[in-house]
Give the backbone structure.
Amino acid sequence: IMGSAWHFGEGDTREVPEHPARPLLALARGIAVVWPPLALHRAEIEPILAALGAPTLGAGLVGPDVAQLCWLANGVLILGVVPREAWFAHLTDLALLAVMAVALPALLSFALYFALWHTPAHVAAVRPLWAAASPTERRWGVAFALAGVSGVLALALRGRWAPGWAAPMFVGLAAVTVPHGWWIERWRRAAR
Protein backbone atom coordinates (compact mmCIF):
# COMPACT_ATOMS: atom_id res chain seq x y z
CA ILE A 1 0.00 0.00 0.00
CA MET A 2 2.80 2.42 0.87
CA GLY A 3 4.62 1.65 -2.41
CA SER A 4 1.46 2.48 -4.33
CA ALA A 5 0.96 5.62 -2.27
CA TRP A 6 4.50 6.79 -3.04
CA HIS A 7 4.10 6.04 -6.76
CA PHE A 8 0.77 7.90 -6.98
CA GLY A 9 2.07 10.86 -4.98
CA GLU A 10 5.24 11.14 -7.06
CA GLY A 11 3.20 11.10 -10.24
CA ASP A 12 0.64 13.60 -9.00
CA THR A 13 3.26 16.09 -7.76
CA ARG A 14 5.86 15.78 -10.51
CA GLU A 15 5.25 19.36 -11.73
CA VAL A 16 5.87 20.85 -8.26
CA PRO A 17 9.24 22.65 -8.19
CA GLU A 18 12.05 21.23 -6.06
CA HIS A 19 11.55 21.94 -2.37
CA PRO A 20 13.04 20.24 0.72
CA ALA A 21 9.55 19.06 1.73
CA ARG A 22 8.51 17.91 -1.76
CA PRO A 23 9.03 14.20 -0.88
CA LEU A 24 6.69 14.68 2.10
CA LEU A 25 4.14 16.31 -0.20
CA ALA A 26 4.39 13.37 -2.61
CA LEU A 27 3.93 10.84 0.18
CA ALA A 28 1.03 12.80 1.73
CA ARG A 29 -0.65 13.06 -1.67
CA GLY A 30 -0.30 9.33 -2.27
CA ILE A 31 -1.61 8.52 1.19
CA ALA A 32 -4.55 10.88 0.57
CA VAL A 33 -5.33 8.83 -2.57
CA VAL A 34 -4.97 5.38 -1.01
CA TRP A 35 -5.83 5.48 2.68
CA PRO A 36 -9.15 7.39 3.07
CA PRO A 37 -11.14 4.92 0.93
CA LEU A 38 -9.71 2.12 3.08
CA ALA A 39 -10.31 4.00 6.32
CA LEU A 40 -13.90 4.93 5.46
CA HIS A 41 -15.03 1.63 3.92
CA ARG A 42 -13.58 -0.98 6.25
CA ALA A 43 -16.52 -3.39 5.79
CA GLU A 44 -15.90 -3.43 2.03
CA ILE A 45 -12.12 -3.82 2.33
CA GLU A 46 -11.80 -6.36 5.16
CA PRO A 47 -13.10 -9.38 3.16
CA ILE A 48 -10.63 -8.60 0.36
CA LEU A 49 -7.75 -8.33 2.84
CA ALA A 50 -8.83 -11.60 4.46
CA ALA A 51 -8.93 -13.32 1.07
CA LEU A 52 -5.41 -12.08 0.39
CA GLY A 53 -4.22 -13.34 3.75
CA ALA A 54 -3.30 -9.77 4.69
CA PRO A 55 -3.71 -8.40 8.20
CA THR A 56 -6.94 -6.61 8.95
CA LEU A 57 -7.03 -2.86 9.31
CA GLY A 58 -6.42 -1.98 12.95
CA ALA A 59 -9.08 0.08 14.68
CA GLY A 60 -6.65 2.99 15.04
CA LEU A 61 -6.04 3.06 11.29
CA VAL A 62 -9.62 3.41 10.13
CA GLY A 63 -12.50 5.83 10.49
CA PRO A 64 -13.36 9.37 9.51
CA ASP A 65 -10.73 10.89 11.84
CA VAL A 66 -7.93 9.05 10.04
CA ALA A 67 -9.26 10.07 6.62
CA GLN A 68 -9.52 13.69 7.75
CA LEU A 69 -5.95 13.58 9.05
CA CYS A 70 -4.74 12.34 5.64
CA TRP A 71 -6.53 15.19 3.86
CA LEU A 72 -5.41 17.79 6.40
CA ALA A 73 -1.75 16.75 6.16
CA ASN A 74 -1.90 16.88 2.36
CA GLY A 75 -3.62 20.30 2.44
CA VAL A 76 -1.04 21.79 4.83
CA LEU A 77 1.82 20.49 2.69
CA ILE A 78 0.17 21.88 -0.46
CA LEU A 79 0.09 25.33 1.14
CA GLY A 80 3.69 25.01 2.30
CA VAL A 81 5.32 23.45 -0.77
CA VAL A 82 3.26 24.18 -3.88
CA PRO A 83 3.65 27.62 -5.49
CA ARG A 84 0.71 29.89 -4.66
CA GLU A 85 -0.53 30.02 -8.27
CA ALA A 86 -1.04 26.23 -8.22
CA TRP A 87 -2.84 26.05 -4.85
CA PHE A 88 -6.32 26.08 -6.38
CA ALA A 89 -5.61 23.16 -8.71
CA HIS A 90 -4.00 21.03 -6.00
CA LEU A 91 -6.63 21.81 -3.36
CA THR A 92 -9.45 21.15 -5.86
CA ASP A 93 -7.91 17.78 -6.69
CA LEU A 94 -7.69 16.98 -2.98
CA ALA A 95 -11.33 18.00 -2.46
CA LEU A 96 -12.46 15.79 -5.35
CA LEU A 97 -10.53 12.83 -3.93
CA ALA A 98 -12.16 13.43 -0.55
CA VAL A 99 -15.67 13.57 -2.05
CA MET A 100 -15.03 10.35 -3.98
CA ALA A 101 -13.69 8.59 -0.87
CA VAL A 102 -16.73 9.62 1.19
CA ALA A 103 -19.47 9.23 -1.41
CA LEU A 104 -18.36 6.16 -3.34
CA PRO A 105 -17.42 2.59 -2.49
CA ALA A 106 -13.65 2.26 -1.96
CA LEU A 107 -12.97 0.30 -5.11
CA LEU A 108 -14.99 2.65 -7.31
CA SER A 109 -13.10 5.57 -5.79
CA PHE A 110 -9.79 3.86 -6.69
CA ALA A 111 -11.05 3.07 -10.21
CA LEU A 112 -12.02 6.70 -10.82
CA TYR A 113 -8.65 7.88 -9.54
CA PHE A 114 -6.95 5.52 -12.00
CA ALA A 115 -9.15 6.66 -14.88
CA LEU A 116 -9.16 10.41 -14.21
CA TRP A 117 -5.73 11.10 -12.65
CA HIS A 118 -3.20 8.31 -12.79
CA THR A 119 -3.60 7.00 -16.34
CA PRO A 120 -3.75 10.41 -18.07
CA ALA A 121 -0.68 11.52 -16.09
CA HIS A 122 1.25 8.45 -17.22
CA VAL A 123 0.22 8.87 -20.83
CA ALA A 124 1.38 12.50 -20.75
CA ALA A 125 4.66 11.56 -19.05
CA VAL A 126 5.46 8.51 -21.15
CA ARG A 127 4.59 9.87 -24.58
CA PRO A 128 7.82 11.89 -25.00
CA LEU A 129 9.88 9.11 -23.41
CA TRP A 130 8.52 6.40 -25.69
CA ALA A 131 10.62 7.49 -28.67
CA ALA A 132 13.83 7.22 -26.61
CA ALA A 133 12.97 3.76 -25.24
CA SER A 134 14.65 0.64 -26.56
CA PRO A 135 12.49 -2.02 -28.25
CA THR A 136 12.82 -4.21 -25.13
CA GLU A 137 11.67 -1.36 -22.88
CA ARG A 138 8.71 -0.75 -25.17
CA ARG A 139 7.71 -4.43 -25.07
CA TRP A 140 7.89 -4.46 -21.27
CA GLY A 141 5.97 -1.19 -21.09
CA VAL A 142 3.20 -2.60 -23.30
CA ALA A 143 3.10 -5.84 -21.30
CA PHE A 144 2.69 -3.97 -18.01
CA ALA A 145 0.09 -1.64 -19.49
CA LEU A 146 -1.93 -4.54 -20.92
CA ALA A 147 -1.78 -6.43 -17.63
CA GLY A 148 -2.97 -3.37 -15.72
CA VAL A 149 -5.75 -2.58 -18.19
CA SER A 150 -6.84 -6.23 -18.16
CA GLY A 151 -7.05 -6.18 -14.37
CA VAL A 152 -9.05 -2.96 -14.27
CA LEU A 153 -11.41 -4.20 -17.01
CA ALA A 154 -11.93 -7.50 -15.21
CA LEU A 155 -12.77 -5.63 -12.03
CA ALA A 156 -15.15 -3.28 -13.84
CA LEU A 157 -16.91 -6.04 -15.80
CA ARG A 158 -17.30 -8.26 -12.76
CA GLY A 159 -19.52 -5.64 -11.14
CA ARG A 160 -19.08 -6.82 -7.58
CA TRP A 161 -16.34 -8.07 -5.30
CA ALA A 162 -16.18 -11.74 -4.49
CA PRO A 163 -13.24 -12.80 -2.31
CA GLY A 164 -12.69 -15.96 -4.37
CA TRP A 165 -11.60 -13.99 -7.42
CA ALA A 166 -10.53 -10.71 -5.78
CA ALA A 167 -7.48 -12.25 -4.09
CA PRO A 168 -5.83 -13.55 -7.28
CA MET A 169 -6.72 -10.30 -9.06
CA PHE A 170 -5.01 -8.20 -6.37
CA VAL A 171 -1.96 -10.46 -6.35
CA GLY A 172 -1.74 -10.04 -10.14
CA LEU A 173 -2.15 -6.26 -9.95
CA ALA A 174 0.46 -6.08 -7.19
CA ALA A 175 2.85 -8.10 -9.35
CA VAL A 176 2.41 -5.52 -12.11
CA THR A 177 2.55 -2.43 -9.87
CA VAL A 178 6.16 -2.69 -8.72
CA PRO A 179 7.71 -3.19 -12.18
CA HIS A 180 5.33 -0.56 -13.59
CA GLY A 181 6.54 2.01 -11.07
CA TRP A 182 10.15 1.02 -11.67
CA TRP A 183 9.92 1.38 -15.47
CA ILE A 184 8.09 4.70 -15.28
CA GLU A 185 10.70 6.09 -12.87
CA ARG A 186 13.53 4.72 -15.03
CA TRP A 187 12.10 6.41 -18.12
CA ARG A 188 11.62 9.68 -16.25
CA ARG A 189 15.22 9.69 -15.02
CA ALA A 190 16.54 8.85 -18.48
CA ALA A 191 14.68 11.85 -19.90
CA ARG A 192 16.28 14.31 -17.43
About this structure: The chain has a mean pLDDT of 78. The chain is about 80% helix and 0% strand. The radius of gyration is 17 Å. Residues 12 and 117 are 8 Å apart (CA to CA).
